[in-house]
Design brief:
Structural class: alpha/beta
Radius of gyration: 16 Å
Largest sheet: 9 strands, mixed
Order of helices and strands: EHEHHEEHEHEEEEHHEHE
Number of strands: 11
Length: about 230
């Protein structure tokens, strides 16, 4: 086992599956099974999930929403996704606990580093929603922050792409995949791993980032066993 404690960032868009909007039950259940399998190995798992399948603050601002209110709507979307994932984990027998950066008990427990770590040590998956709790920050930055706070060994970014490429592989078939790359090169080459704030935060705190395709079942387990299924940014 390479890592004792991980922070898994999941894409809200990936939850759509082939629906184009909302939550695809098949994709949700696939994620729950993979997370349960990883937890059975003894790995402590924290999760941050985006809300782009429901609402994105930036997209709302472009359509005339106040940016702060738009970002707050996006935070609420992450809570919906977190509750859905928690429910799916419960269904497969994996204990989980939803924390919210904005107080909204009893929907979720108020987030604190120490309560999250306590849950992790008890074998409970800690799902941390609302991003950072502040506008103008993405859930990527929220993931980087939570990974550092809970003292994770690595931040895993589960996407629909199997790693970091020199260009968008969906647009450029000749794009080259990196097995590993430095934070500095990611920023200098403007590679779309995460936003610059999140990447810089990880760099400043020596938090490695592993990018892989979470939509392929079994990839999370393979990654935790040390198999090369993505790209390491460090």
């Amino acid at each position: 086992m390479r890592y004792n404690r991980i922070l898994l960032k999941l894409s809200g868009e990936s939850l759509m599956g082939n629906q184009g909007y909302g939550i695809d039950p098949c994709r949700l259940n696939s994620y729950a099974e993979q997370i349960r399998e990883a937890a059975l190995t003894g790995t402590q798992i924290g999760i941050v999930i985006g809300g782009g399948n429901i609402f994105r603050g930036l997209s709302g601002a472009a359509k005339g929403f106040d940016r702060v209110k738009g970002d707050q709507m996006g935070m609420m979307a992450t809570v919906i996704n977190s509750l859905a994932l928690s429910s799916a984990l419960d269904a497969v027998g994996q204990p989980s606990k939803v924390f919210t950066a904005i107080p909204m008990f009893p929907i979720g427990y108020p987030y604190s580093k120490w309560e999250a770590i306590k849950a992790l040590k008890e074998g409970t998956v800690a799902i941390m929603s609302c991003g950072t709790g502040s506008p103008y920050f993405t859930t990527d930055t929220g993931s980087a922050l939570r990974a550092i706070e809970i003292e994770a060994d690595v931040m895993l970014k589960g996407t629909r792409v199997d790693g970091v490429y020199s260009a968008d592989p969906e647009k450029y078939p000749d794009a080259v995949k990196y097995d590993s790359i430095s934070y500095e090169d990611v920023i200098a080459k403007n590679l779309k791993v995460m936003d610059i704030t999140a990447t810089a935060l990880c760099m400043e705190n020596n938090m490695p980032i592993y990018v892989f395709n979470m939509d392929i079942e079994g990839n999370l387990a393979k990654m935790l066993k040390g198999e090369n299924v993505g790209t390491l940014v460090s």
